What we know:
The chain is an alpha+beta fold and 445 residues long. Helix content is 48%, strand content 8%. Strand 10 and strand 11 form a beta hairpin.
Amino acid sequence: xxxxxxxxxxxxxxxxxxxxxxxxxxxxxxxxxxxxxxxxxxxxxxxxxxxxxxxxxxxxxxxxxxxxxxxxxxxxxxxxxxxxxxxxxxxxxxxxxxxxxxxxxxxxxxxxxxxxxxxxxxxxxxxxxxxxxxxxxxxxxxxxxxxxxxxxxxxxxxxxxxxxxxxxxxxxxxxxxxxxxxxxxxxxxxxxxxxxxxxxxxxxxxxxxxxxxxxxxxxxxxxxxxxxxxxxxxxxxxxxxxxxxxxxxxxxxxxxxxxxxxxxxxxxxxxxxxxxxxxxxxxxxxxxxxxxxxxxxxxxxxxxxxxxxxxxxxxxxxxxxxxxxxxxxxxxxxxxxxxxxxxxxxxxxxxxxxxxxxxxxxxxxxxxxxxxxxxxxxxxxxxxxxxxxxxxxxxxxxxxxxxxxxxxxxxxxxxxxxxxxxxxxxxxxxxxxxxxxxxxxxxxx
Length: 445
Ligand code: HEM
């Protein structure tokens, strides 16, 4: 109600939160906040749309995660909402002790235990397997389309399945569970948002209880019979001081890494495909210069990021670009808007796969919580989009895509497409290695 009242009073940030129709294209609303610096008045807290301010707050130890603080320091309206909601029914991947919800020293400890599995080198070793998964899914897409007059939903049959398959294999979660995980992920995703209605909140809670029970059983089994996967390693991991993770820490970490592993990358693939449908010139450029694919993925992340915004709280009285903030004050970092800051990105609203500094976006955050899966997500996005557009050069939209209802996570719920003819060039036998080299003289941004 508080958000809706602010939206009616003309606050652009509240309008984005309150109105799904406006959320279809929130970027003009973010621009209305651009003249206020370092912060504009947001829906419930001050918000920044500036690249330098967002970066500085994310990198400053004067700010921490909101979940790491006592709820009595939250804005009164959120305190009331939390009191009405009652205690959480299950361990949530976005509440303490999840790594994304805590500050050092706990954060340092959790992150150290899992980070090796996600290093750029570890991810490079997964590229070929990811390509095989993409090829298998594209075969399935072709079969499905053949049975439906060439039409298929790109999100249900490809964009969502690729990341969940990769992360499941990587972490030792049974791949047969992937549809169940996608369904749980879909129901739990609104948990990130502020201002969800009561029935959505109850459904999130029910989902967390189901997830909690499944994870406890799975971790028990890994303890009895560990495999060569990351979760088995975590179950038995001990830190420098000889201590391991408690059951709750383990559960929160596992649920976060698996959830973050597919709930965001599906949106990168969907948003990327939609942008390429809308920009045939950029698609042609990629067909002519395939070495631009990696940069194209960063440009997708810049111009339409899957994580649109993030909150932080001041851990002490502090000043940001001359603006004082009191200890406990909450600020929102508008990552999606910062990615269109004209002081960093010339012609910021133009989708340009050859943009030289596309990688400077804040889609993965910054500072100590910088996305653990950034290398994995970039690799998956590149493999998935390239394999798709090379296999089906005539691929096109066959109707309107439907966006997800969520605020923080931005992506497509469905994207109906028609495949068109298949290119023999884009078809690669599983396991066949492909050269990513380009003829000399073509430049990668
Ligand atoms: C395009 C895909 C992705 C996007 C846009 C994305 C975005 C983000 C952002 C913005 C954060 C910072 C949160 C904060 O500072 O509060 C983050 C953290 C995180 N991400 Fe990702 N992510 C993606 C893919 C992945 C994948 C594939 C994984 C797989 C493991 C992953 C795991 C994590 C984890 C564990 C954190 C918490 C890190 C920490 O607290 O130190 N993400 N992600």
